C-alpha cells in the first residue's frame, strides 16, 4: 500500500514537472523542472526494482547531461545579459500531433498483450550481472560510446568558447 502511494507521488511529480516544462517560457526554470521529472522517473524505476536503470537515470541524465544544460543556460544568460525565453505560436499543430500520437499509443496499448513474468524479480541483484556483461562481452561498444561522448563534450566546449582560430 505504501509503495503505491509513493508510486503515485512520483507519477504526480513527473506530470506536474512536465506541465511546467511545457507552459513555462523561461528556459532555466524548464531545465529545473526537467531535473525534477528525471528524478521522479528514477524513483519509479527504483520502485519497480530496476536498480540499474534508476542509478543510470540519476547519474547520466540528471547528474550529467542536465547539469551541463543548466550551466550552459546560466553562462548564456551571463554573456547575453538577459534571460533566454522561448516562444512558440504553433499550439494548434502541436496539439494535433500530440493528440494523434496519444491515440496511436492508446490503441497500440489496448491491442497488445503483456506476458506474465516467469521468474521472481525480487531475488538477486541484477546490477552486478549487467556490470559484468558491460565489462566483458560488451566492452568495445561501451568504450566506443564513452569516446563518442568525450568527442561531443570537447566539440561543445570548443563551440561555446571564445577561442578564435588564428588567421594565416
Write structural notes for this entry.
The chain has 168 residues and is an all-alpha fold. The protein has six helices and no strands. It has helices at 2-23, 27-47, 51-80, 91-111, 126-135, 139-160. Helix 2 packs antiparallel against helix 3.
Q: Number of DSSP helices?
A: 6
- State the secondary-structure class: mainly alpha
Distance between the termini: 71 Å
Written as H for each helix and E for each strand, in order along the chain, the element string is HHHHHH
The largest sheet is: none
- State the low-pLDDT regions, or none: none
Total number of strands = 0
Beta percentage is under 5%
Q: Quick one: overall form? A: globular
Mean of all residue-level pLDDT scores = 80
Cα-atom radius of gyration: 21 Å
Helix percent reads over 70%
List the helices and strands and how they pair.
Blueprint: H1 2-23, H2 27-47, H3 51-80, H4 91-111, H5 126-135, H6 139-160
How would you sum up this structure in a few lines?
With 168 residues, the chain is mainly α. It has six helices and no strands.
Descriptors:
single chain; 168 residues; mainly alpha; 75% helix; 0% strand; globular
Amino acid at each position: 500500500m505504501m509503495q503505491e502511494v509513493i508510486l503515485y507521488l512520483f507519477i504526480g511529480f513527473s506530470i506536474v514537472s512536465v506541465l511546467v516544462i511545457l507552459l513555462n517560457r523561461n528556459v532555466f526554470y524548464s531545465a529545473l523542472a526537467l531535473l525534477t521529472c528525471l528524478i521522479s522517473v528514477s524513483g519509479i524505476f527504483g520502485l519497480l526494482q530496476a536498480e540499474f536503470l534508476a542509478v543510470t537515470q540519476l547519474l547520466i541524465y540528471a547528474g550529467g547531461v542536465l547539469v551541463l544544460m543548466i550551466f550552459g543556460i546560466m553562462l548564456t544568460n551571463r554573456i547575453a545579459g538577459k534571460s533566454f525565453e522561448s516562444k512558440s505560436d504553433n499550439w494548434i499543430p502541436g496539439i494535433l500531433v500530440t493528440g494523434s500520437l496519444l491515440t496511436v499509443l492508446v490503441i497500440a496499448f489496448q491491442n497488445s498483450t503483456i506476458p506474465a513474468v516467469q521468474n521472481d524479480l525480487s531475488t538477486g541483484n541484477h546490477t552486478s550481472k549487467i556490470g559484468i556483461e558491460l565489462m566483458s562481452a560488451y566492452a568495445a561498444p561501451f568504450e566506443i560510446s564513452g569516446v563518442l561522448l568525450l568527442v561531443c563534450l570537447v566539440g561543445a566546449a570548443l563551440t561555446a568558447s571564445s577561442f578564435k582560430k588564428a588567421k594565416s
